[in-house]
TrEMBL record, chain A:
Gene3D superfamilies: 1.20.1250.10. Key player in the regulation of energy balance and body weight control. Once released into the circulation, has central and peripheral effects by binding LEPR, found in many tissues, which results in the activation of several major signaling pathways. In the hypothalamus, acts as an appetite-regulating factor that induces a decrease in food intake and an increase in energy consumption by inducing anorexinogenic factors and suppressing orexigenic neuropeptides, also regulates bone mass and secretion of hypothalamo-pituitary-adrenal hormones. It comes from Otolemur garnettii. Pfam families: Leptin. The keyword ATP-binding does not apply. One of its GO terms (cellular component) is extracellular space. Residues 1-21 form the signal peptide. This is Leptin. Keywords: Disulfide bond, Secreted, Signal. GO terms for biological process: adipose tissue development; adult feeding behavior; angiogenesis; aorta development; bile acid metabolic process; bone growth; cell surface receptor signaling pathway via JAK-STAT; cellular response to insulin stimulus. InterPro entries: 4_helix_cytokine-like_core (IPR009079), Leptin (IPR000065). Belongs to the leptin family.
Length: 167, 1137
């Protein structure tokens, strides 16, 4: 137990040090601003605007569906999946969005640490094991659907952040 | 051949291993063992063959046909950092006993490279074997139950090669993970159709690893003067190492050698001595457990000089502190550190406070807060000298101080995808040979308060721009990650890092400028409204800056700030609503982070109607028709409204009429500026309205035409004063009235030209007004002033000419008051002057007039009361006609004539006709002018009668006047002096007069001097001996140049005097040349000799030259009027002819 607590403290230390330096309000503001920025970036990608929201695309179940996110950890998991997907996409535009997602996850971790609920780092998911084959077959669909769903998820997160989400 | 027989294998170990049934293999270490090979049919009692292993390998006591020797020690094959083992498998014979084969180093290195793949190999060697096979097996680390002899098929064959000498080597790959495993192997040797097989051999590879020798052997002197030997461990060693150091010291004092085994990678070996040589070698071995020593490193030599600087060179950055140590040896004797002084560049002695004694032989100097090294020529370092008092060794330490304070500035583009960082390329010469590189470390979020250089960093490629800056681009970026950046300066002596700076891309955003910027003047409000669209990024709240100005080449911008991030427009007040404005907008984060965007593209306003016209036009009327009649035509005139009044255009004008009978009606007159209507009623009120697209003007001027009001006169006076051709001032005086005066109309026209009446409206409160128009002074203008009452137009006041300016009149009168007294004073002064002159003339005239009784020519003349001078001269000329009378005084001057031959006409006839004209003495200046007779005839006192004849030749006198310089300030004395000097010259023969003249001449010497014009001073000097000349010259020099014409000293007649030295009129008692007699010497009479022979013969005794100096005795004749002069001319000509 002692070792676990120590490891947990050490894991939190970098964030705690930043919490000391950066007011949490600024972190929240930056989080919202970054979400807006990502949403706008997705909006600026022209072909994502053409996707009809009424049409449901099957076969891409590994992309998280848009649903209200309740907690910071859930947000982080969702973003981790999106980040992994976007990293796999060859489009140049999404590289910047992927970087933004990484920053956004860092911010979420910082927010969580400020609430004494550290988030475990979520690595790649097993569900994405066959991502390569899917991308090879339907790159356009994957990109469009992923960006579209990411945009919706981010907008949900933006609303959730105003409600002070839990861990 | 022996080998081809049956044999048995006998293993001889140099030490005995216990062999148990559970472990049938023979553990071998890095020691030598020997295999003795026996024939295959030998008894197997001595064999301990594992299961599955061919049993044809046997050993028997006492019978040894063949033996195989294998070694696993350093005498075998060498590997680098790998377990090295060598099988020396030799037949037991004398010739093969010493067989050994060295492995190829290159092969060993190959193995090193394979370590990364966790594959280790072993090599076994055998000699004098026709063929050899090596089979190995790694025994897994399992429980004892499972431990057993592996099956035959579990062994793998290791490739073996044999050379011509019969030496073989086998490579057994050993994965890194199995370094600690037990390796079982056996050898199979075939020779002559007989196969020998060794028993199982067991070895743990890690025990036979021979490491590479250490690297980077280095010796240096520590701060306390010790010699420090340091090195680095070889790479990729699977266990800790121990080191053996072998070093030697060779100096003039001692020579010693030592070996030490240390676990660290450095060793201090005591104090270093100047002028010594140190040699060192190091080798490594496994720290714990069995192992093999590596080879020795190459010998490293470290030689110390007589002066040891440690460190010998320092590379550091600006602002840092560094220290140098020094040991100074002079003549085999170490100098005490107390006597050591430090110098910089052999030019500057370092302050004693900067260095101190470390020990009795080590001195230390410290430089704090260093400045950048200023290169001296090609030397980019500061030379630090350690000196023993006044003596400095030629060796020095080098101090390189480089300014690495390089500022890095970054900017994120408006799309938030690219961050460009720029930093200037230092041009310091000290950086020549250095390379600069930007390195950065990205943190996950934000920057720390104190950025520091992170051990893990990445380089960033930068490109040199035209402005000399390096530009590095980060794309894509992490908006909220802190990029800690610094410049690494790689110098030959090391590397330096600039102070790190941390940049958050989100904080250095330069947004895109606002888009869709529009500018307009709002209708009915009259404000300049600028609207824009916020740029897409950043999402933060923005502040805006608007600049606007009148459109043109040089726009005078005005600024307007908008701090509301949600604003998309702003309105500003502008003075001119009917002008084209240009506006631009830029933005920046509201929190002040980042940069201002560029200005947006300019937006321009369009001139449109903003409001209804501010007012209606000013208008006036022209009434035509018979005054007696009740119906008259009235033509209304108005001036078109300007933009600032019409806001911004006028579409048409509308006249509103009002009469008591007809009420109000409107008349649309379009864009015209005049309209005529018939005035029929007692009162008729009109109003002119201006109409634009918004509506009609509200504030308008009214004009009521009323018959009764025409007689109301309130303008008492009207005056017009011309200022210049473009401005006239009108002033007036109004009398109080009961009517409500609205304003005044001023009307003027040029009466001489048929031009339209000009008019303008003047507020009723104004009493004078400046009219700016083109006025011609010689023209006649009519000015009228109409009082405009609420009830109607009053009676005008009209003037038809400009009013005389009282001021000017007063000025003229004032001038008159000044001028008149001046004229009167001048007249009085002139009159007084005339009277004085008259008195003087009379005095001169009568003072030296001889007794008429003794002068025949004067008989009959009343000198006491001459009626006029003319009369006197007439009388005189009449007397001149009588030669004897004229020549009577000549006897006086006979004795002083000097004959000189005249060589030319010019000489014979002096070019200068002399006439001594005494002006009125200038008392203030102390001189008397002798002027041209023509110019100052009234002041002439003497004139030769022959002058006229000379002048007939058309030669004007070249001498205008003479100047008499006098120091005396007394007018009377001076006058007297002049008179006496002049008069005495005339009568020098007379003894009293001669004395008088002589005396007066001496007086002249000091007081006055008469000279002639057109003569040079140098021609005068040889003949002037009196001392007054010097004073004269001084006086002349003292004359201001600009007054030279007036104040020049003229030398009267000296030319003739010089040329005719004998003619100089001299006194007997003095050697002074008389300055005056020149005019008295009527030498020109000589000219008349030819024309008047009789006259000459009868009256002159001319001597050989026929010339005679003549001294006139009639000074009174020197004064003559022009008329007299003419008369004299004719008379004298008659006389000479």
């Amino acid at each position: 137990m002692r070792c676990g607590s120590l490891c947990q403290f050490l894991w939190l230390w970098p964030y705690l040090s930043y919490v000391h330096a950066v007011p949490i309000q600024k972190v929240q503001d930056d989080t919202k601003t970054l979400i807006k920025t990502i949403v706008t970036r997705i909006s600026d990608i022209s072909h994502t605007q053409l996707v009809s929201s009424k049409q449901r695309v099957t076969g891409l179940d590994f992309i998280p569906a848009v649903h209200p996110v309740l907690s910071l950890s859930k947000m982080d998991q969702t973003l981790a999946v999106y980040q992994q997907i976007l990293t796999s996409l060859p489009s140049r535009n999404v590289i910047q969005i992927s970087n933004d997602l990484e920053n956004l996850r860092d911010l979420l971790h910082l927010l969580a640490s400020s609430k004494n609920c550290p988030l475990p780092w979520t690595s790649g998911l097993e569900t994405l094991a066959n991502l390569g084959s899917v991308l090879e077959a339907s790159l356009y669909s994957t990109e469009v659907v992923a960006l579209s769903r990411l945009q919706g998820s981010l907008q949900d997160m933006l609303r959730q952040l105003d409600l002070s989400p839990g861990c | 051949m022996v080998c081809q027989k049956f044999c048995a294998v006998l293993l001889h170990w140099e030490f005995i291993y216990a062999v148990t049934a559970f472990n049938p293999s023979y553990p071998i270490t890095s020691w030598r063992f020997k295999l003795s090979c026996l024939p295959p049919n030998a008894t197997q009692d001595y064999l301990l063959l594992p299961a599955g292993v061919s049993g044809n390998m046997s050993a028997s006591h006492g019978y040894y046909e063949t033996s195989v020797e294998a070694t696993f020690n350093s005498s075998g094959v060498y590997f680098s950092s790998l377990p090295k083992s060598a099988f020396h498998c030799c037949f037991w014979s004398e010739q093969d006993k010493n067989c050994s084969v060295l492995a190829d180093n290159t092969e060993g290195k190959t193995f090193v490279s394979t370590i990364h793949f966790l594959v280790f190999q072993q090599i076994g060697k055998c000699c004098n074997v026709l063929s050899i096979g090596c089979y190995f097996y790694f025994q897994p680390e399992v429980s004892e139950d499972s431990a057993g002899v592996p099956q035959r098929g579990s062994f793998q064959a290791a490739p073996c090669t044999c050379d011509a000498q019969g030496c073989c080597e086998c490579l057994v790959p050993v994965p890194a993970t199995k370094l600690n495993s037990s390796l079982l192997m056996y050898l199979k040797i075939s020779s002559g159709g007989i196969t020998f097989q060794s028993p199982l051999l067991s070895v743990q590879p890690i025990n036979v690893v021979k490491p590479d020798p250490p690297v980077g052997l280095h010796m240096e002197v520590t701060d306390d003067g010790s010699l420090r030997i340091s090195w680095s461990s070889p790479t990729l060693v699977p266990f800790p190492l121990q080191y053996q150091v072998k070093y030697s010291e060779n100096s003039t004092a001692i020579t010693r050698e030592a070996e030490k085994i240390v676990p660290a990678t450095a060793l201090l070996v005591g104090s270093v001595l100047p002028g010594s040589s140190y040699k060192a070698q190091v080798r490594a071995k496994r720290l714990r457990g069995p192992g093999i020593w590596s080879d020795w490193t190459p010998t490293h030599t470290f030689t110390t000089q007589d002066v040891i600087y440690f460190p010998p060179k320092i590379l550091t950055s600006v602002g840092s502190n560094v220290s140098f140590h020094c040991i100074y040896k002079n003549e085999n004797k170490i100098v005490s550190s107390k006597k050591i002084v430090w110098w910089m560049n052999l030019a500057e002695k370092i302050s004693q406070s900067q260095y101190h004694v470390v020990s009795d032989r080590i001195s230390k100097v410290t430089f704090a807060n260093l400045n950048a090294t200023r290169p001296r020529g090609k030397f980019t370092f500061d030379a630090v000298y350690c000196c023993a008092g006044p003596e400095c060794h030629h060796r020095y330490a080098e101090l390189y101080v480089i300014d690495v304070n390089i500022n890095i500035s970054c900017e994120t583009d408006g799309h938030l995808t690219r961050m460009t960082c720029r930093w200037p390329t230092p041009a310091a010469q000290s950086l020549v040979g250095s390379t600069l590189q930007l390195r950065y470390h990205r943190s996950s979020l934000y920057c720390s308060d104190t950025p520091s250089i992170h051990p893990i960093s990445e380089p960033k490629d930068c490109r040199v721009q035209k402005d000399g800056f390096q530009e590095c681009v980060f794309q894509p970026i992490f908006l909220l990650s802190g990029y800690t950046m610094w410049i690494r300066v790689s110098h030959p002596l090391g590397s330096l890092d600039s102070p790190p700076t941390c940049v958050l891309p989100d904080s250095v955003v330069k947004p895109l400028p606002p888009s869709r910027v529009q500018a307009e003047i709002t209708v009915n409000i009259g404000l300049l409204k600028i609207s824009w669209e916020k740029p897409v990024f950043p999402e933060n709240n923005l502040q805006y800056q608007i600049r606007y100005g009148l459109n043109g080449k040089d726009i005078q911008w005005k600024m307007h700030e908008v701090y509301d991030g949600k604003s998309k427009s702003a309105s500003v007040l502008v003075p001119d609503l009917c002008a084209v404005y240009t506006a631009q907008v830029r933005c920046r984060r509201l929190d002040g982070l980042g940069y201002w965007s560029n200005w947006s593209s300019p937006a321009h306003t369009v001139i449109t109607d903003i409001k209804v016209p501010v007012r209606g036009p000013e208008f006036w009327r022209i009434i035509t028709g018979d005054i007696t009649k009740k119906e008259r035509n009235v033509t209304l005139l108005w001036k078109p409204l300007m933009k600032n009044a019409s806001l911004c255009s006028v579409r048409r004008y509308v006249i509103s009429h009002y009469t008591s009978r007809n009420g109000t009606w409107l008349e649309d007159v379009g864009n015209g500026t005049k309209s005529t209507f018939l005035w029929t009623e007692q009162a008729h009120t009109v109003t002119v309205l201006a109409v634009n697209s918004i509506g009609a003007s509200f504030a308008n001027f009214n004009l009521t035409f009323s018959w009764p009001m025409n007689k109301v006169n309130v303008v008492q006076s009207l005056s017009a004063y011309p200022i210049n051709s473009s401005c006239v001032i009108l002033s007036w005086v109004l009398s109080p009235s009961d009517y409500n005066l609205m304003y005044l109309i001023m009307e003027w026209k040029n009466l001489n030209e048929d031009e339209e009446v000009k008019w303008l409206r003047v507020p009723s409160t104004v009493k004078k007004y400046y009219i700016y128009d083109h006025f011609i002074p010689i023209e006649k203008y009519q000015f009228s002033l109409y009082p405009i009452f609420m009830e109607g137009v009053g009676k005008p006041k009209t003037i038809s000419s400009f009013t005389q300016d009282d001021t000017e009149k007063h000025q003229r009168e004032a001038g008159l008051y000044v001028i008149v007294p001046i004229i009167i004073s001048s007249s009085i002064l002139l009159l007084g002057t005339l009277l004085v002159s008259h008195q003087r003339m009379k005095k001169l005239f009568w003072e030296d007039v001889p007794n008429p009784k003794n002068c025949s020519w004067a008989q009959g003349l009343n000198f006491q009361k001459p009626e006029t001078f003319e009369h006197l001269f007439i009388k005189h000329t009449e007397s001149v006609t009588f030669g004897p009378l004229l020549l009577e005084p000549e006897t006086i001057s006979e004795d002083i004539s000097v004959d000189t031959s005249w060589r030319s006409k010019d000489e014979m006839v002096p070019a200068t006709v002399l006439s001594l004209l005494l002006r009125t003495p200038d008392i203030a200046k102390g001189f008397v002018c002798v002027g041209d007779p023509g110019n100052s005839a009234n002041f002439s006192q003497a004139e030769g009668t022959q002058l006229t004849c000379e002048d007939e030749e058309g030669r004007p006198p070249s001498v205008k006047y003479a100047t008499l310089v006098s120091k005396s300030g007394e007018t009377d004395e001076e006058q007297e002096l002049i008179n006496s000097s002049v008069s005495k010259c005339f009568s020098s023969k007379s003894s009293p007069l001669e004395e008088s003249f002589s005396r007066s001449s001496w007086e002249m010497e000091s007081q006055a001097f008469l000279v002639l014009a057109n003569q040079h001073l140098n021609r005068l000097l040889p003949h002037l001996t009196f001392s007054g000349l010097d004073e004269l010259l001084k006086l002349e020099e003292n004359f201001p140049e600009e007054n030279n014409d007036e104040k020049s000293v003229y030398y009267l007649g000296l030319t003739s005097i010089r040329k005719r030295e004998s003619d100089v009129f001299l006194t007997e008692e003095s050697s002074v040349s008389c300055p005056f007699p020149a005019h008295c010497l009527l030498t020109d009479i000589t000219v008349l000799q030819d024309s008047c022979p009789h006259f000459v013969e009868n009256n002159f005794n001319l001597g050989t030259s026929g010339r005679k100096t003549f001294v006139s005795y009639m000074p009174q004749f020197q004064t003559c009027s022009t008329q007299t002069h003419k008369i004299m001319e004719s008379k004298m000509c008659d006389l000479t002819v």
